[in-house]
Amino acid sequence: MGKFTVLNTIFLVMFIGWLMIWILLPTKSYKLKWTPELKTKLNSTYFREQGTNILLFSFPIMFIAALSCVYLHLHKKSPNSDSGQMRGLRRRLASWRSPVCVKAPLGIVSSVELSFAVMFVVLLIWSLANYLYVSFGSLHMHAGDKIWQAKFRSVSLRLGYIGNICWAFLFFPVTRGSSLLPLVGLTSESSIKYHIWLGHLSTVLFAAHTVGFFIYWIMANQMVEALEWSQTYVSNVAGEIAMVVALVMWLASIGRVRRKMFEVFFYTHQLYTVYIIFYVLHVGVAYFCMILPGIFLFLIDRYLRFLQSRDRVRLLSSRLLPGGNFEMTFAKTPGLQYNPTSILFINVPSISKLQWHPFTISSNSNMETDKLSIMVRTEGSWSQNLYKQLSSFANHLDVSVEGPYGPSSFSFLRHEALIMVSGGSGITPFISIIREIMFQSTIPNSHVPRVVLVCAFKTSADLAMLDLLLPISGSHAEQISQIELQIEAYVTQENEQPTIEAQKTIQTSFFKPNPLDMPISATLGPNSWLWLGAIISSSFVLFLLVLGLVTRYYIYPVDNSGGFYHYSYRCLWDMFLVCACICLASSVAFVWSKTGNGGLNDTKQVQNVEMATPTSSPAAWSYAGGDHREVESLPNQSLAQAIKVHFGARPDLKKILFESKASDVGVLVCGPRKMRHEVAKICASGLADNLHFESISFNW
To answer: Does CATH place domain 315-519+612-695 in 3.40.50.80?
Structure first.
């Protein structure tokens, strides 16, 4: 534990120091006393005005990101790294993770989230107040300006500064393979709401900044400024273009639009590259270095995803379930490990070459070492087209993937009992959890919790999703009889149980292998965290070296000879060098990690896997009765006996949760927003001290 304590201390000190810089940045002391000294010492001919911000704002986060890769690698390799003291700390902090606010549009907000949100808002207010205090004390007066006009202009400018603070954090939540989020127990999918909050807030601030300047230009008869692309200062036109792009992205990302017209949201959000380019051209290189870490790490992740997605993966089989749901099973390398509730992004070029959709992984990497399965519900046009292709008995289907992405560790096994509440396809992450519990039950002296699965379906056809609890290969399936599992299934739109003859059968299809198909593997191999740390550190150091050389031997001579190197060209140089260094370092690491230690050979070894085809549904036997159970295997009998089906009823969640007598009950929910909020409110009511809410969010 000593090495982890040291690393955690380094992370904490560096992060607090970085935050202190943001707190001190708008103050009078920083501007009048420290800034001149810092510029004298740090703004050399190699970095010019970027030197100070690179050291104070970029370096700390890049250092933490690189070192955290080492931390996560050691944590992964050390079986005892999460025992004793850390588990005790998690128990003490459990109450802080319980929901305290369950309201739209914020959703389910825990005590920790609320505390940090309040502190962030306080930081924004503090920064704006100090910026205005300092600027009002020494107003920058343009020719013909009145004092109140100058103040109005100053307020509009400082609102842009505050929006820049939001941008410093904006890209961290959407970096799927982030090394920073696991340090605080987050994943990209669970922290996507922070990206949404920051996106809304930054758009409002930038809109106020833009409107404020247009009002000022009108009042001061300076509308010509709106068309200025200055050679010596920031470009107003670039800012206006960035604002237009931001508004288009923002309108398409509103919840109602995103849910009903996902493709509109998806395609407009690809404009983020245009937004970043014109945003940087507007704010300049110095401010770009203040927000650089988030963008830098996001671009590394995005390029690695691109490299992974170039391969076609082997689709082994599909299971078409009654009710329009289906499971897809892919080949994977045995070395690929992932935790329950992980997700996989897939792309089917025959449907759309651009669209990527995330799906929860239902398989377990410990039980199924060479296969990976996801479950898909046919809701939109994309999934409906995929269902049609799978049901047409095609011999082969081209699929590309990104991922898997998920938590670096899981803590649900620490509870005495688990109550998992799902609605519809929300059962998928719980399938992976139950499979993990089945595997853990095979380990001597391991603790596994009692499990109550409460699932609500619209029709009895959806009950077939419960059959996915048993792996298609049958491996470790017998362990379902060794765990305490109770399944309460509610069919809400049918009052009578159908006969077993009326049940549609599960259709299983197998696909022919293609020599060019590859098994799903970790993007950077088994030591992916170390490789990611090498990419982060080498690409950032390379960027600094090349930037210093370009500035010193190309830009500085122009400025020093009496001319002035175009301000926008400096921004373009910075963005180009960031992209070039990331592509170079990532490409070298990607190829090296695949060819080193036989990694490339391992990914090419795709073997044919024999998988049994279920003849009928254990979920159906659970209510149909008869002699069907007598001719089926023990795992199927155990699953059927664990299921109790309620027709024409909805689960009384309050009764189910409050009647749990275990001293430590973990409560997980995944399903419609109304269901998630109801469970969160029950756990937050304080009427039962034994309920501990564990948030699972898949609101893409």
So the answer is: yes
